[in-house]
Design goal:
Strand 16 (279-284), helix 9 (290-294) and strand 17 (297-300) form a beta-alpha-beta unit. This protein is α/β, with parallel strands linked by helices. The chain starts with a strand and ends with a helix. The chain has helices at residues 17-29, 41-50, 63-66, 70-82, 94-107, 215-225, 233-237, 268-271, 290-294, 303-318; strands at 2-7, 10-11, 14-15, 30-37, 55-59, 87-91, 112-115, 117-121, 124-131, 136-141, 147-151, 166-169, 201-205, 228-231, 258-262, 279-284, 297-300.
Length: 319
Amino acid sequence: MAKVWVYAELNQGTLTPAALELMAKARELGDVDAIALGAGAKAAAATLGKHGAKVVHVNEDAAFDDFIAEPATDALASLHKEQPADVILFGFTPDSRDVAGRFAARLEVGLISNAGDVAAKDGGFVAKVPYFGGAKLASMKANKNPAIVLVRPKSFEAKEVGGTAEVKDLKVTIDVASKRAHVTERVVEASEKVKLEEARVVISGGRGMGGPDNFPLLEDLATALGGAVGASRAVVDAGWVPYSMQVGQTGKSVRPGVYIAVGISGAMQHTVGMKASKVIIAINKDAEAPIMKMADLGVVGDALKIVPALTAAVKAKKK
């Protein structure tokens, strides 16, 4: 069996959703060790065990939270020297990208980025990477061991399988030179809204919404459905909504139970970030829009009339 590592990223003491998504794929590839560093690492071990980790290596040194990337790189390099892995999976998040890049350079191996899938093949590992805005998929084989792969969030569905992991303390000496770039402040955006990446229902708007003043119509529908609002790149680039709402190749990937695309044509740049949704509903004036071809349900008409009517129907149903 292949030796598989998952870098289980923690955000202020809590496992990121991407970490548990990676566990789902890692179980298919071989025996899984997870590495959790920083505050909350020991508490996270139980959850990682339920998701298939046989061993969880932990270290709660404050340096992993206070300094950027290099302490984590030291820890991974130290562990790999003692017990090498065949493939190491990282989430395609800002922090994990930083660690993965430094770690690959430290080991002098390549790194495959922005992957949507990973598989064992011919004694090595091959990752599927989208290009041309997601219209095509390239098969990229790791050039050396370990294969280091950054995987897009929502590429896999996290699922508990039961089990208990053996927890091992990861001994590491963090070099003084690794304590250079440090965190000076953390700002958490206060919000009562459902997070876009975690929402079970996502309503995204495109240019067909006509302008930024009409996006509250989507907010009303999202509130009624207990969901979140996203957007296409076109409206983000136009300044209608902030970048944090963008769904697509250069934005966020989502995997809700229901995805409602309102006034979105369906360019590949957008669909690569939402095509894993279980049910896709498209509302568009153009019956021939590309989004209609991938939708489970297509509604042809004026979104500015359809969305308020849908919101009213949902609210009436709740009474």
